[in-house]
Amino acid sequence: MTGATGATGATEPGYPVVLRLAGKRVLVVGAGRVAARKVEALVEAGAAVTVVAPAVVPELSARDDVTIERRPYVSDDVAGYWLVVVCTDDEVVQQRVFDDGERLGVWVNAADDPDRCAFTLPAVARRGPVIVAVSTSGASPALAQALRDRAAAAALPDGIEDVAAHLAAERRRIQAEGGSTEDLEWRPLVERLLDALGSSN
User: Fold this and answer.
1) What DSSP state is assigned to residue 10?
2) CATH superfamily name and code, 17-121
3) pLDDT in tens, 106-152
4) Cβ atoms of 174 and 184 closer than 8 Å
5) Backbone dihedral region of 137: left (phi > 0), alpha (psi from -120 to 50 degrees) or beta?
6) What global pTM score does this model have?
7) Which residue of 25, 149, 154, 175 has the lowest C-beta tally within 10 Å?
8) Residue pair 4/116 in contact by the 8 Å Cβ criterion
9) For the chain, which residues make up each domain, given as ranges?
């Protein structure tokens, strides 16, 4: 078997990003409970999701917002997709999907299998456009979830989405007037808004 090299996902430095998936074609290989959770999050992000699996759990079968193909994965199924998530208990399938993604330049995430991931998924909490994400680079999803919960309690107070909207409007105003927002010192304004938010909660 090629590709898996032994816990590399937990030690390699990662480059965190927030992907914009609206309208993007995403493939999910597998259709169990884990896949159902992944599909829900992908659909919430606006992705156009296709599921490929021989058997499908009822909560996925009941969805009318995804395309379901009831069949085994075949080589090159990843072609034409922007992102792939594989959620099976079959290491051979996981490896095949990962290898196909590497060959075709498609990012693949294999659930609970960091060695077969081009990217890992952080534990996420969100309020409007504000996201708190914690990653252990695949070393321990349980630790990431616990840290996420602690961080979210402090970072996502009621009204934080209004602060984000206010700051976004201010950026647009400055840009519309021909200014650049890259070199501005935003921190004092942000701190004032957060302090006002804290005093109102």
Assistant:
1) G
2) NAD(P)-binding Rossmann-like Domain (3.40.50.720)
3) 999 999 898 999 999 899 999 999 999 999 888 888 999 999 999 99
4) yes
5) left
6) 0.81
7) 154
8) yes
9) 17-121, 160-200
